[in-house]
Hints:
The protein is 18% helix and 29% strand. It has helices at residues 4-17, 58-64, 81-95; strands spanning 40-45, 51-56, 99-107, 112-122, 131-138, 150-159, 166-167, 179-180, 189-190, 193-194. Strand 1 (40-45) and strand 2 form a beta hairpin.
Amino acid sequence: MHSRTTMELFQYWNAVRGERDLPRRDEIDPAHIRALLPDLFILQRRASGDICFRLAGTRLCALFGRELREQHFSALWSGSEGDGITRTADQVMRQCTPMLLYGRGATEAGDELDLELLLAPLASSDGTNDRVLGALSALARPAWLHMTPLTHMVATGLSVPDIARNLPIERPYGNAASVAGSGGRNNRKLFHLRILDGGKGG
């Protein structure tokens, strides 16, 4: 994981879930992750199978220059890539497995920005695993950031964090005293994405 936002959200998600596969939506306390909220989002799988933004932070919306709530997650991605990204998000929910996506965003003028996305499974209050708690982080801070919107993203890779390896955190959430880190290299392929080493902290 390259982004501090990604790391801190992963630590929080892992601490809240404890020994379970995933936490419930009503267990997520925004007060514990207040500094991360502008970069966070929640996806939900609808009865139709579509995966849409339930919530999207202000910095995330500013990055794309529009309100993302109720928009399809696939709409952020270039062309036919959206179908593969939708399947990836669906797999996160169905297999209760967090994933890291790596992408490159582009503006209408052709400026590019490397991005990191965390997709962590999240259950509804009734226990149905139909949501994703996520974070989208820019890996650079160009002068045009948040002034010139991204028009789309292109996926460049994917990694699966190793939730079995413990890492210390500065403060525990709930009753958990440790959280999982991210894993090593895996050369499998998932849909059209090549699985990459998560990098620093990965």
